[in-house]
Amino acid sequence: MTRGQGRLYEPDSDDSGSKKQKAAKRRAGGVTAERMAKAQREISVSEFFTKNRHLLGFDSPRKALLTAIKEAVDNSLDACEEGGIRPELEIKIRRDPKNEHIYTISIEDNGPGIVRGQVPNIFGKLLYGSKFHRLRQSRGQQGIGISAAGMYGQLTTGKPVKIWSRTSRRATPHSFEVRINTAKNKPEFTEKAIDWDGKAHGTRVEITLEGEYRRGQRSIAEFLKLCAVANPHVKITFVDPDDNTVVYEAGTKEMPAETDEIKPHPHGVELGILMKMLQDTPEKWVKLFLQREFSRVGPKVSEEICRQAGISDRAHPRRIARQEVSALKKSIDNTKIMAPPTSCIAPIGEAQIIAGLKKEVEADFYIANSRSPVVYRGHPFLVEVGIAYGRPGDTLELSESGKIFESEDKKKRRKKAAEENLLADADEPARLIRFANRVPLLYQQSACAITKAAIATNWRAYGMTQPRGTMPIGPMVLFVHIASVWVPFTSESKEAIASYDEIIKELKLCLQDCGRKLGAHIRKGKKLASEHKKREYITTYIPHIGQALQEILELSDGQTQKTVKNLTTVLEKSRKM
Asked: What is the dotted CATH code of the domain comprising 48-248?
C-alpha cells in the first residue's frame, strides 16, 4: 500500500466512524416520549379557526365581505322573529378612503336588543350561542358566525367589533368594543353608556375588515335580493360603497309562523346517540325514557318498541347492555311512528314562494310545491320547490269561445322581461337558487345536495332539453328551499347541504311534483302554438281560394264570401275531429 493509497483509505475509515458517532449522539439526544408529552397542549377553537378561516367562508376578500354581512343579517332576522317584531334592516358598506381594500360594514336592526352581559360573549367567543342544543328552525346554528366575522376583521385590520344595543325604550343604550383573545377564546372589551335617540330597541354591529366589493353573481346585492324573495315580511335598506341606496320593501305584513322547540324524532337516531341519551336521561324506566326524550312516542308506541326489542319497559336505561341497545334501535326503526310535528318548522309556503318569484322574475308560468315533513337522523325537515318558466307571452291563451289569443297583460310583461333580461335564454341552463332556512346559498353549488337532486331529475320527461349530467336547458328559474331544525351543512361556512339519502329522496319527489305540472303547461303551450299556426294557415289561404273560385265559377261577391265562410267552418270542424 502506498502512502497515497493510505491517505485515501484512512479518511474513509474515519468518516465511517464519525457517522456512527453522530448517529449515536442523535439517538442519545433525540426527542423522548416525555419531551413530546411536554409539548402537547389544548388548542383553542379560536386559534384553530384563525389558521383555518377558509372553513368559515373567509378564504378570499370578496367572499369574506359577503360572509360577514350574511352572518350579521342571519342573527338580526332570527332575533327579530323570536321577538315577534317585523324585521327592518339597514346595511351599509363604507370604503376606506386611504385603502380601497378596507371596508367598514354596519348592520342595524329593530330587534329586541341584547342584554349587556351577553354582548361580549356573543361577539367575542366562538361556539357560544343559544341555538346549538335546541331542535327548532333558525338561521343560525353553531354560535360561530358573527364572532368569526369579528375575528377576521381583527386579523386583517387590527380593529375591534363595535356594537350598539338597547333592549327597551326605558333601558340605557350601551356601546361596546370587543376583541377576541384567540389563545383563550375569550372576549376583551370596553363598554360605555351612550345616547341613542329615536331607537326604542335594536342592535347595530360595525366591523372593519379587508375585503373586495363587486357586483353581479354571488355579490352582496344578489344575496340581499334573494333574502327579500325568501323573506317577504322583511324590509331591507342597502347602501353600497358608492352611496347608492336600494330598498326592498316588505311584500307582506304577515310574520312566519312561530316555531316550537321539540324533542328528536326516534326514526333516524343513530346507535351512538341513543346510547348517550340512555346514559344521560333522568328517567328510571325505558318506557318513560322513550316517551319523554322523543317526540311522537306515546305509551302504546313505547310499549310496542320494548316488546319487539325483548326489553322490559321498566328496565333502567343506564343498565341496558350494548346488545340490548342495538335491539332497541332496530325495534324503533321497525315500528310505525307518527310523522314529526310541523310546529318546529316554519316553511315559506307555496303562495309566498310564488309571490316572491313574481316580485323578482317576469315569467310565463309559476308553480310551487311543499312536501310534508320527514326525518333524517332524528331531525325533521321539509322541502319546498318553486318554478318560474318561460318569458311572458310564450304560451298563448284560449278564450271561452275557443279563440286563441295573447292578452295585453302578457304583452306588457313580455316587453318588460325582454328589457330586464330576468330569465336565461332558451339555449342556456336553467338558473338554480338554493335556500336553507330562508337563507340564500351562493357558493359551492356543485357540492350541494340540492344541485345533485336537480341534475338527477329527468327533466326530459317534462318536455325540456337536458344534456347528461347538467341542469335542464331553457328559460327557467328553479327555487329550492330546505327548512329544518338542523340543516346538515358540509362545512362551518354553511354554503352547501350534505347529500343524505333522505334529503335527496325528498328533493327529487318535490322536484318531480313541480315537473309534472310544468310538463302539462309545456305540452299545452305546444298544442296551442300548433293550433294557432294551423289557424293562421286557414286565415291566410282561404281568401285566396275564394278569389280563385270566383274567377273560375264567376261567382258574385256575396256568393264568394259565403263560400269562404263555409270552407273555413268545414276546415275548422275537420281539424278538430
From this structure: 3.30.565.10
